[in-house]
Amino acid sequence: MNGMLLPSATLLIIDVQNAIDDPTWSRWGVRNHPKAEVKMEQLLRAWRQARRRVIHVHHWSTEAGSTYYPGQPGCESKACVSPLEGETIFCKDVNSAFIGTKLESYLRAKEVSQLVVFGVITNNSVETTVRMAGNLGFEVFLAEDACFTFAKADYSGRVRTAEEVHAMSLANLEGEYCHVVETAQIEQWL
């Protein structure tokens, strides 16, 4: 990791939508990083002040009853990352921002080689998108304190805390697919 962001480095915000606050998510238990939205807003503000490209990725479920179904309030961005006019939005219906969207071709056309990523859920759409970005040759910086997840049972049925799930996702990604960093570190590079 060179610690320097190229001028073309792009911020990719994954699934930070109102639906994540729907009470049905409480069945997953307590989430980690209760102040993640503060970090998201802080990094986005610094990114915009540096006049850098921002891309929002929204999950649009194909299931009519989902809180992420298009046209419902859950599909809207959370206030902390609300898109500004002119910021690009890609909508997906699977966990990777690269599947079924034109994200990769858009990034290639803009000659983007570095991505800074944050969002939800760490072990789902964030991890999948970061893995694919790394495999596609992008240099990725994952702002881990601007991501969060929930407790989850492992394969044997043992419930792992949100902190454990988050930490395992980071361990899966670090070095091979991305550089795991904190928002303060990214802000220093702007």
Topology record:
Elements (H helix, E strand, L loop, with lengths): L9 E5 L21 H14 L4 E6 L28 E5 L10 H7 L4 E7 L1 H14 L3 E10 L3 E2 L5 E2 L1 H12 L5 E3 L1 H7 L1
Parallel strand pairs: 1-2, 1-4, 2-3, 4-5, 5-8
Antiparallel strand pairs: 6-7
Please characterize this protein's 3D structure.
Helix 3 (122-135) packs parallel to helix 4 (162-173). This protein is of the alpha/beta class and 190 residues long. The model has no long low-confidence stretch (mean pLDDT 94). Strands 3-2-1-4-5-8 form a six-stranded parallel β-sheet, sandwiched between helices. A two-stranded antiparallel sheet has the order 6-7. The protein is built from five helices and eight strands.
The stretches of 5 or more residues where confidence is low (pLDDT under 50) are none
Shape: globular
Radius of gyration over all CA atoms, rounded: 16 Å
Distance between the termini: 15 Å
Summarize the structure.
With 190 residues, the protein is an alpha/beta fold. The protein is built from five helices and eight strands.
Features of the shown structure:
190 residues; alpha/beta; globular
